[in-house]
Amino acid sequence: MLTNKGRARLRGLANSLPPFFQIGKAGVTPELTEAVAEALEKRELLKLSVLESCETSPDDVADALCGRTRSEVVQVIGRKIVLYKKSAKHPVIEV
């Protein structure tokens, strides 16, 4: 569970990140979930962009990905989502 201080630090780190995935019309598919889980294991902090064509709201997309990848939602602003999951093999970010 992230503390407010940890969440603020992660938000600051995520500001400079470009979106790593774009979620479109298909929404949250099993393939997308698997790709996000692999990227989180390598990077720990991930920014995603929800396109206008996606019928699901960004909050619902964040909740779905969070539940399926066992990650934590750092923030949802507009159509951007930031997720965090501490890497089991190579932790990089100290929270």
Description:
The chain has 95 residues and is an alpha+beta fold. The chain has one domain: Translation Initiation Factor IF3, CATH 3.30.110.60. 39% of the residues lie in helices and 21% in strands. The protein has helices at 4-14, 30-43, 58-69, and strands at residues 21-23, 45-50, 72-77, 80-84.
CATH superfamily: YhbY-like
Oligomer: single chain
Number of strands: 4
Low-confidence stretches: none
Shape: globular
Q: What is the topology?
A:
Blueprint: H1 4-14, E1 21-23, H2 30-43, E2 45-50, H3 58-69, E3 72-77, E4 80-84
Parallel strand pairs: 1-2
Antiparallel strand pairs: 2-4, 3-4
List keywords for this structure.
four-stranded mixed beta sheet, 3 helices, globular, 95 residues, Translation Initiation Factor IF3, alpha+beta
Quick overview:
The protein is α+β, with helices and mostly antiparallel strands.
